[in-house]
């Protein structure tokens, strides 16, 4: 209590919240980079926040750190391509990967997605008896983490004896294309115009190894074209991973896309 000249009054305690003095500051949390009052608002198209990759040979367990600069609520996409067997995700616990591969003797691809909580900085995979594997972690910001899916791969195609891989149509929100090959001679590649190349894990030239390539584009329902490789490969797998977003209800035009850039005779961009 304090005397204000007329009577005793209750003292109101205020706290500096970084911008002004407030009576009841909101709860804040550390997202890995700064103190936040609330999670970032989900957008229709999540933004790429970083990635990294690694290669493992003759080991049962493979670890790969999350991309530098990852923040709480970033949408993590972890990819494990194995020369044989079906990879299992050991850490972070509680997430079940979607595994594409019909036989223990075949190359397989596992994809797991989850919102980053700030507690797990390493991803740990059990490769079993696989002689070799490639790992990629991608982080996306401002996606709709409430729409996390157990089946993040929304489409897949497999091609035999090709050096050009036709891309399937992209879908809503952000589409990440993941190409998987095994060859002795893949050393270069070219994604079609309009795709943004992301993390790549190429096999060593001259050794029969896995290569994993990734690229992204906003989903529009049309094919972006063809991925070109420098050499024919026995088998090429192509997988489409959707990064969930939250629509704002407004129409979206993607300039240059065969479908999403058709505005109509009475539509103008200002």
* Straight-line N-to-C gap: 60 Å
Order of helices and strands: EEEEEEEEEEEEEEEEEEEE
Low-pLDDT segments:
none
Number of domains: 1
Overall shape: elongated
Helix content: under 10%
Tell me the fraction of residues in β-strands, as a range: over 45%
Treating each run of at least 4 consecutive H or I residues as one helix, how many helices?
0
Count the beta strands: 20
State the major sheet: 6 strands, antiparallel
- Would you tell me the overall average pLDDT? 87
Gyration radius over CA: 23 Å
Supply the helix-strand structural class. Answer: mainly beta
Q: Would you mind describing this structure in some detail?
A:
With 270 residues, this protein is mainly β. It has one domain. Helix content is 0%, strand content 47%. It has no helices and 20 strands. The chain has strands spanning 2-3, 8-9, 15-16, 21-22, 29-30, 35-36, 47-57, 61-65, 75-82, 88-91, 98-100, 108-115, 122-126, 132-141, 153-166, 174-183, 189-190, 196-201, 209-218, 226-243. The strands form six sheets. Strands 15, 16, 17, 18, 19 and 20 form a six-stranded antiparallel sheet that branches. It is elongated. The mean pLDDT is 87.
